[in-house]
Amino acid sequence: MIPYELSAQRLPMIEEIEIAQIVRDRNDAGEPQPLSQVAEKLGLDPTAYR
Question: Of 45, 50, 18, which Cα lies nearest the Cα of 33?
């Protein structure tokens, strides 16, 4: 079991690591695309998503 004080100290570091991973994943995904292009790729009417 981890003492509360220790977990409270480590929480900001853990959150920073998790956020950094999300940012890396988004950067690796490439350039953003307009929602209308994503809708068209899914077979939806792109004009409804402008």
Answer: 50
Is the Cβ–Cβ distance between 37 and 46 less than 8 Å? yes
**High-pLDDT (> 90) share of the chain, %:** 78
Cα–Cα distances (Å) from 5 to 2, 8, 12, in that order, read: 8, 5, 13
Q: Is the dihedral of CA 9, 11, 14, 16 positive or negative?
A: negative
Task: Report the alpha-carbon distance of residue 49 to residue 38 in Å, rounded.
Answer: 9
Question: How many H helices and E strands in the chain?
Answer: 2, 0
* Angle made by CA atoms 17, 31, 34, in degrees to the nearest 5: 120
> Which pTM does this prediction carry?
0.52
